[in-house]
Description:
- By secondary structure, chain A is of the alpha/beta class.
- Chain A is built from ten helices and 15 strands.
- Chain A has helices at residues 4-9, 20-33, 46-55, 72-82, 97-105, 118-133, 149-158, 193-201, 225-239, 286-307; strands at 11-16, 38-43, 60-64, 87-92, 110-113, 163-168, 173-179, 182-188, 191-192, 207-212, 262-272, 277-281, 312-319, 322-328, 332-341.
- A five-stranded parallel beta sheet of chain A has the order 2-1-3-4-5, sandwiched between helices. Chain A has a five-stranded antiparallel beta sheet with strand order 9-8-7-6-10.
- Chain B has a single domain, classed as Dynein light chain 2a, cytoplasmic (Beta-Lactamase).
- Chain B is built from three helices and five strands, in the order H-E-E-H-E-E-E-H.
- Chain B has helices at residues 7-10, 41-58, 97-110; strands spanning 18-24, 30-34, 67-72, 75-81, 87-92.
- In chain B, strand 1 and strand 2 form a beta hairpin.
- The longest helix of chain B is centred in the middle third of the chain and has 18 residues, at 41-58.
Amino acid sequence: MASANDHQTLRQVLFVDDEPDFLRLMQERFGSLSNGRWEIHSAGSADAALEVLKQRKMDLVVVDSNMPVLDGIQFLGLLSKRFPDLKKVSLTAFATEEKRSACLAAGAELFIEKPRSEAGYQSVYAMLDDLINWAPQQGFQGMLRRVGLQDVLQMECLGRNSSVLEVYNEHVLGRIYIEDGNIIHAAGGELTGVQALQRLLALPGGSFELVPFEPPPQRTITGPWEFLIMEAARLRDEVASQTPRDEPQVDPQTLAAPTAASVRVVETLVCTGLGKPLYEADCADVPARVLLLKNIGRQAQQLGQVAALGNFDRLELQFHNGRAIAQARPDRLVFVAVATVAPTL
Amino acid sequence: MSASPHPWLTTRAAPPGMLACGWRAPDGTFDCHSLEEMCPVEKLKKILTQFDAVRGALFSDQLAPRWSTWCFEHGQIRFVARADGWLLALVARPESDALAKLDPLSWEFLTLPTGG
């Protein structure tokens, strides 16, 4: 039974979708997963959603990106104007990079594929719940709690780099292969593919290093890296209480021992194109960094006009003790800095 | 400024995939070398001039990179600024051998005797 205190923290979530069956499913699944902590509202159209929003303050609105009449992207833009503080998520049956960019540019905090399995529902629920509880000053602490391997992986993907992340501690040794910004393979102990990636990202400690790309023995992973990392973050929280002694042992002959310097992420900031922080870690002055990123975007435009080398992708900065990548795109601003750390072995 | 480009620009800084290379001296003179038509000397001079304005607006004592690489769809521009006022620009094709040379060339430039 809900207590008075429960009512105070009951989260108001509105799902907007033109498919009644899907709305019913959302009610059932997320109602169950939230254990009564979410009050779930439904609207079959943009008009109906606006009516609900007039009557009640929502913590989160989840919009289907493919709605008739006023489509999801247009509706997100409308919501951004009318309710600038409202958290918005776009849910789609068919994710494309174009649609993702459009939804994020229209103000969605997250762009997520509709779940198709029980694990998918759990993953989406974890993401949405983290977003609801996220306060801008705190960053996505609940979703990506630890700064480290995930951030380096994110940096490599955002930078569309090709590299191999070697991960090691006393129990697990593994590799994550990134090609042109896509995670294509992971191996750790007896595991490969997504399972290995999740296990490596769930490590409670250890070290890693970035080494030049080499083709993997096989390709076991497909799909958007954002979803893979977020899913791994959710699973990491689940296994956090488990003992690391369960980690599989790895044949040390399959991987080279680290000899080069490692890197440590010292600052991460991911914002919407308008500069609204989505994820922040160890960024001492977020407004100043957002200003820098916007400035980089402007300067890149001017430099690009002179150079005539096509669209600007990123700025890479090399410092005496590390490097940073800055991206300034219409749909997102990103700044990730890493410091070089001397090897400990 | 000499009539022909500095030998370092024509030999060391001209690997396959490099579109152009050149620098601006502290006295404002340019020494630029074009390797492909799409990046002629005049364009490189404009790029160097534009970056000079850009770096003032972006970088400070708190954010002072040793070098910066601006990555565009059809090429990357590496800028290396020396404390004595020399500014190098290397323009390379994406996915070319020249990209792997950008770091070694940048290091070389930082200690290169430029005669200035």
